[in-house]
Amino acid sequence: MFISFEGIDGSGKSTQVGRLAAALRAAGRTVVLVREPGGTALSESIRALLLDPAAEIHATAELFLFTAARAQLVHTVLQPALDAGSVVIADR
Question: How many Å apart are CA 79 and CA 72, to the nearest integer?
């Protein structure tokens, strides 16, 4: 199962992610938490670049960076966790 929390910064996503993860773990489920962009070494590097105010990133390049970060996360974390039967919760 894949659950994604969406919302603007400061809206309480991380709080709700933590509460849901705790409840699912208490019910005996294996839970994997991820954030986007991020969640892998490469994706965290991309996140740092995207958040760098000094980086002048064209909109198309930004789109491709977000897509690259997501692809890395899907292939190295999300899909293996889902294949193993874990619940994956994304903080976006």
Answer: 10
